[in-house]
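Hi L., both proteins are below.
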Amino acid sequence: SGGPDIWQARMHSDGTFGAVERIAPDGVEDQYKPAVASHGNGSSQVIWSSRQVSAGVLENIEGATLGASGAASAEFLVSMGLGRQSEVRFATDGTDHIAVFESEGDEEARILAQRVDALGNPIESEPVVVGTLPESRFPRPQVAWSGTQYLVTWTFGGAVYGRRLEADLTFVDPAPVQLFSDTAGETGVAALGSDFFVAYPHTFSGDQRSLKGAVISGSDLSVIGSLMTIGGGFAIRPVARTIGDRVLVFWEKQVNHDNDASTISAVWIEPDGTVGPSMVVSQSGDSDHPDVAVAEDRMLVTWMDEFSTTDTGVEGRILGLDGSFLTPEFTICNAHKEQMFPACGWSGSFFTVAWSDMRGLGQIDQLRGDVYMTRVDADGTVLDPGGVQVTDGPLPEDLPAVVGCADACIIAFSQLHGTCGSPEVQRIGYVSVRQLGVADVEEGTVGGFAFQTGPNPFQEELRISWQGALRSVGDAGNVEIIGIDGRRIWSAPMTGVDGSVAWNGKTRQGHAAPAGAYFVRMRLGADEVGTARVLRVR
């Protein structure tokens, strides 16, 4: 029923072998790479690597004790492989954020929740375990905030489960509650007043999936009213957002199971839980993976558009909070190769869109992506055309999620670690978009001095310009680049009242400075008149 197993054959003192016997019961895992050590009394210790077949490449170290007669003890766990964290999603209470994600391990997957502040710093040292389930791929947790509590939802075995948490992550429900039993994919969840609305795809024939949903009581997680069909087509990937006193549910609407040409559709859920008007947001030929960021008076809808099998870009559209179209569909990024799985958030002053980007791949590389981002103005203007590289690791970083408040956005993403890139050491990484945006500049005190840096982030060259310098301190101005360890790695004199210099990303010794954060410091005489933080990406 499984793969290879660990067997034994004992050699006697006369050089003959005894019976060949299996050490551990025949299970569903692959067992390989055994190692043996003697206890010195005829018994021995055997350990081996164990790979759960259903889990892909999640690995543990297991073992058994062999008696002098060759009898094996029950197998036992020596070391459990690290969990594979992925599928992060956010909700915000307006001050802090909650991140929910899954962590897959051997024979168990956990739904985890952790709060982070506006810059991505964890509030709890460890996440809380919202639910556990037998090792399963992609339960895809979702989360929504009602103003008083969070609801976390996920799927397993064709059912939707939910559990409520207080703002401090104290559990309202003593255990997860099954909400529905007929799902065929991930959920979308949003607050509807003090209650919640949960949407999910339902397979009603081999070739079609409808979108179903219901109002879930914020008091006891019971279904209020009846379960409704709210959308048609081959419906997948619902995204629900609270808009005033209503909920707007978006989804990817394919033609059918075998024809994945798709549009992004949406339907209103009225305050009383009834189904309202529907609309088509994207008319492009193959729109996938929608996400939505809601601002004070508008929203941004993003999706990926597959132009060909090797060319995928990110597109978007600005809608009013009444569902009206404020812009046509527009391109956010269509660089070389593929831009995939976009996510978006609103900081309070700009939208941030992040995606998995494959432009750095070679001709025969697998999909080892990096995370890129751009800011989008409220009117739909793309502020960082072509995108800004956020990550550049030797192993994949992908599947971003974005959340924002307090004039900053956080991008979370899955990233692999380790020399072999084993998925069991996949972790969630965070980066603040405030750090990636325009640097905060401390105004100078000398003669109305001001300066600017850009682009930020930068790859090869950073330009530093100033206005109003050297009016009272002669020619004693200086521009310095400071590493995060506080050491000055480059400097250049300031000449003229207005001027600029360019840093080529190298140290004073001519070595390339590594990717990371740096400080630009401006000095006029003995005065430090301004600093800015910049990020170099490679």
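That was the first. Here is the second:
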Amino acid sequence: MTNSRKRHTPEQVVRKLGQADRMLADGQDVAAVCRELGVSEQTYYRWRNQYGGLKADDAKRLKELEKQNATLKRLLAEAELEKA
């Protein structure tokens, strides 16, 4: 069985959340919105918690900063191991 999960860029997530907001404002329920967007309700709520209120550029910048932070943490850990 293949993994059919699709990875969305932060910009795509923010765009889909915007679509969801409009659909919810039009009276659709969350389940219908999620079906229309092609995501599970669990994914929708995770995205809402992670990206809610961000613009596409903000979401991209957040991902870049998270990646940079992980790299810096790894480099610091390596440097501390070399000292020991």
